[in-house]
Amino acid sequence: MTIPLRHLAMATCLLIPQIALAAPGDDGVTVTVAVSGLRNTKGLIRACLTTKPATFPECDKDPQSLRLSVPAQSGPALVFRHVAPGTYAVSLFHDENGNGRLDKTMGIPSEGYGFSRDAPVHFGPPKFDAAKVSIGSSDMTLAIKLRYIL
Question: CATH second-level architecture of 25-145?
Answer without folding.
Answer: Sandwich (2.60)
